[in-house]
Amino acid sequence: MKEEQSKEKVKKFGMVIDLDKCTGCGACMVACMAENNVPFKEDESKKLDSITWLRIYKLTNGKPFPDADICYLPRPCQHCGGKGEHGHSPCVSVCPATATDYSKETGIVSQIYTRCFGCRYCMAACPYHARYFNWWDPVWPDGMEKYLSPNVSVRMRGIVEKCSFCFHRYQLAKDKAYFEGRREIEENEYQTACTQACPAGAIAFGDLNNPKHAVYELKKSSNAFRLLERLQTNPKVYYISGREWVRRAGDNYLKDEKK
Amino acid sequence: MFPFCFEWMWDMSHMVFMGGLWYALTIIGLGMTFCIGKAFYDTFLDKGKDDHHH
Amino acid sequence: MDSALIPRGVKRCPTWQFALWIGAAGAVLLWGVFAMLLCWFKGLNQTNMNDAYGFALWIWADLAVIALGGGAFFTGFLRYIVGKDELKNIINYAVLIGFICYSSALLILAIDIGQPLRGWFIFWHANVHSMLTEVAFCLTCYFGVLTIEYVPLILENRQIDKIPFFHRLGHNMHEIMAVFAATGAFLSFFHQGSLGGVSGVLFGRPFGYREGIFIWPWTFFLYTWSAAACGPCFTILITKITEKITGKKLVKQNVIELLAKISGWMIGTYIIAKIIDTWYWAKVTAPAAGFNLMDFYSNNPFYGIWILVLEIVICGVVPAMILISEKGRKNPAALMTAIILAVLGACVNRWVMVLQVMAVPVLTFENWVMYYPSWQEVATTILPVAYGVILISLSYRYLPIFPQEQELNPEA
Questions:
Q1: Which chain B residues have a beta carbon less than 8 Å from that of C175?
Q2: Is C7 among the domain residues?
Q3: Which residues of chain A make contact with C114, given a CB cutoff of 8 A?
Q4: Domain for residue C343, yes or no?
Q5: Where are the alpha helices (DSSP H) in C43-87?
Q6: Residue A227 DSSP class
């Protein structure tokens, strides 16, 4: 079994999000929360301690009418590969208890909830604010625990959590393929909840290394960019926009700097 | 911390880091063992010896 | 009442007065303990930290007390390794202050983690690439060393010293103290550095990130250096406060001046290195990430360029110049000013490298996030101060901490 696995091609799961298609409806956020048993507070007005694995930002170009323009930007965990693709993503290398790990097989940054002891160093390290701390124990409204997904463990107070690229779906797809005697899974067998929920089809998900997957070509678009590329975090989430100001909002530039 | 923890690897980082740690712990441990051992010996086993002050 | 415990030849206040003093500090301590229990039982929702401020007041307090507690390792290093013999008159106190600082840091860390019962994971499942792992290991080991350095002092208590075994144990420990001090210095160089590495390695946070050599960012060396520079100033400051409260001269001025002089040169060299580091960061490292220096110091209600001037010029260059000059050291007011500024400088540096790192927006569409601590955070941060006051008071009353006290106060 082990030998069989090692023969598999190394995968690099990633996302390409077309910002020109995104309407900011929030379906991806809702799907993500439902899929991953993300807890919520009774009063969600204070956003700084809300947990949103996938968060939609509203960007504006800051110009007055008639040039005013907005863009919605969904931000899951970027599953950074780190400098030189060594898996030294900002968060993984700092975790003192090896509670977050970079998978060389899938490129997914995992979070081991039972291992995390809540030092929050990873949160300090992540420039995308993709990591969230459980400030409270989760409290589900009466009866709602029956609707929780059995495939994702709920998290307790005092630990960090984040987007896993719906890794449980990958495990289920692998199990199914193995049961059916296949070694590889198809592109449509492993899709994240947000991808499937997006009514505009703005999110594409797949193996960035696999030419058969849509994301392989999409990421090559001249309008594709990643967030904060200059920091060399090497994210696996790509964004596409035909609008120059949106692409420029993806990174920091000096005042007199030309892209 | 120990080679039997599953995340242990016999690589340079582990050997340097843990080497430093165990080195320091050994010195501290041996030092204290010496102090306690000698005090114990002088007090309870070698009663004839003169009590010298520092 | 407790006169049998008080060292011979020195005068201490009446028991009732001492009890009153301990009672006052104890009340503050209890307030802190209450807040601590709230954090442990109700969780970190008791704090004002949030997902933008995973690190806040507590991590600052940790970094600051460890920097200031650095007086213990550096004074020990000077006394036992370099051979500055006069420092034997202040080393006991430096060790005690270090012991308090390090035990406080460990306590605060135990409150700061979300799952305190899993705290041991940092040792058991250690990720050797994390600066925090190195901090935890070295901090714990060095706390052990400080305990070993403090124990002989306890054994010198008049009653304990009467027991032959303890008398000999204390004697033996004194004999090989240089070995422990050297181990302590070795551990300190690393954990002080690793604390600097905590923000220095964050390549996702351009305000904190620094380039460096091999696996160590420049902040690694700057932190060790600044702790060695400012730690002794904290030792002097606490000594001066103790002298004020007890109304006695406890350490001869030449000892203070020697330590102040070394500290002055350390601060002077440190601040030159810090200026070079800041300049390189402002001109090369940060612009490479798309940031101008002033991006870090504008568009927010608190962090202006004043904080950089305060840290480097007012709390760095000024105390260095005062302490390096003999005239400055001989002038009590100037000496005190320099000492306070140096201590403040280390604290401001640690504040900036923790809190401002969190405050600065990195994504272009995010804003500065400000933070103020909750009362529970403040109380748990004051807790160690009260604990320190109590431990110092007990130690001063019952242990011969200041070898020169009798000579300096002969009337007793």
A1: 54
A2: no
A3: 116-120, 133-134, 157-160
A4: yes
A5: 57-68, 70-76
A6: T
Per-residue confidence of chain C (412 residues) as pLDDT tens digits? 788 899 988 999 999 999 999 999 999 999 999 999 999 999 999 999 999 999 999 999 999 999 999 999 999 999 999 999 999 999 999 999 999 999 999 999 999 999 999 999 999 999 999 999 999 998 899 999 999 999 999 999 999 999 999 999 999 999 999 999 999 988 998 899 999 999 999 999 999 999 999 889 999 999 999 999 999 999 999 999 999 999 999 999 999 999 999 999 999 999 999 999 999 999 999 999 999 999 999 999 999 999 999 999 999 999 999 999 999 999 999 999 999 999 999 999 999 999 999 999 999 999 999 999 999 999 999 999 999 999 999 999 999 999 999 999 986 4
Q: Are strands A203-207 and A224-225 parallel, antiparallel or unpaired?
A: unpaired
Token reading at A6 = 């090692």
Do the domain assignments include residue C6? no
Q: Report how far apart the first and last C-alpha atoms of chain A are (Å, whole number).
A: 49
CA-CA distance, C367 to C370, in Å (whole number)? 10
| C254 domain-assigned | yes
The CATH number given to whatever domain includes residue C50 is: 1.20.1630.10
Return the closest-CA partner of residue C143 out of C99, C95, C80, C96.
Answer: C99
Q: Are A50 and A44 in contact (CB under 8 A)?
A: yes
Mark yes or no for CB contact C366/A97 under 8 Å. no
Tell me which residue range forms the domain holding C272.
15-408
Chains contacting chain A through 3 or more C-beta pairs under 8 A: C
Q: Percentage helix, strand, coil, to 5, in chain A?
A: 25, 15, 60
Prediction ipTM score? 0.93
Q: Domains in chain A, please, with CATH? A: 2-248 (3.30.70.20)
Q: How many domains does chain C have?
A: 1
The identity of residue B18, as a single letter, is M
Smallest CA-to-CA distance from C261 within C341, C315, C322, C189 is with C322
Q: Print burial letters for C357-374: b (CB count within 10 Å at least 16), e (below 16).
A: bbbbbbbeeeebbebebb
- Which position has the token pair 């997904």? A149
Give me the total of CB pairs closer than 8 Å, taking one residue from chain A and one from chain C. Answer: 169
Euclidean distance between CA atoms A153 and B31, whole angstroms: 48
Degrees, nearest 5: CA angle B18-B23-B24: 100
Return the residue of C nearest to A98 by Cα. C127
